[in-house]
Design goal:
By secondary structure, the chain is α+β, with helices and mostly antiparallel strands. The protein has helices at about 55-60, 85-95, 110-120, and strands spanning about 5-10, 15-20, 65-70, 80-85, 130, 135-145, 160-170, 175-180.
């Protein structure tokens, strides 16, 4: 089999690229690279193993230091080798989950929880505007641009016209919407 080139990528980022002149039928190239695979937890977020993701699990998570990891951790919900606000938001989206049924048996998170997180932990949840069911949430207010690409004041009323709205999400994605305001 003859290849014109070979490229190996991880998470969409090229790691190794072998152009045609280096690929030779019958030759062998060896490359060392590492990859992290974090096996799924049996019940993500249930750190005390009582079968329910509850307040005790949240407090356990908040007692864990934030930052870069060298290996897998049950506190790293999105397997990006960091414990940060995204992992906290994932845990909050699981609050109340019964591990055996997947149902929410505790209801909504108590109202005092976010205030407590902001006051007593190094996580800052003040820019979270909405938690979505799949664990992804909007982070911060949307940013408004006019049709010429200039940022407009999102605090005041917008004049009639066409606007682009950019929204940041906890998983690192950004979405854009085009709206038309009439009268």
């Amino acid at each position: 089999m003859w290849y014109s080139s070979l490229e190996i990528s991880s998470n969409g980022n090229p790691i190794i690229s072998i152009p045609n002149e280096n690929s030779n039928y019958g030759s062998e190239k060896l490359f060392n690279f590492c990859s992290y695979y974090c096996p799924p937890e049996p019940c993500k977020g249930d750190f005390d193993n009582d079968g329910v993701v509850g307040i005790q699990d949240l407090l356990t998570f908040l007692a864990t230091p934030q930052g870069q990891l060298n290996d897998c951790s049950e506190y790293d919900f999105n397997n990006d080798l960091q414990i940060n606000l995204n992992d906290l938001l994932n845990l909050l989206s699981l609050y109340g989950t019964n591990c055996s049924t997947g149902e929410n048996i505790l209801g909504a998170l108590p109202e005092w929880t976010l205030d407590c997180i902001n006051e007593y932990s190094s996580f800052n949840t003040t820019n979270v505007t909405e938690i979505i069911d799949n664990g992804v949430c909007k982070v911060g207010p949307p940013i408004y641009f006019d049709i010429a690409g200039r940022k407009v004041n999102e605090k005041g009323d917008l004049a009639p016209g066409i606007y682009i709205i950019v929204q940041k999400w906890s998983n690192g994605n950004m979405t854009t919407k085009k709206i038309f305001l009439n009268s």
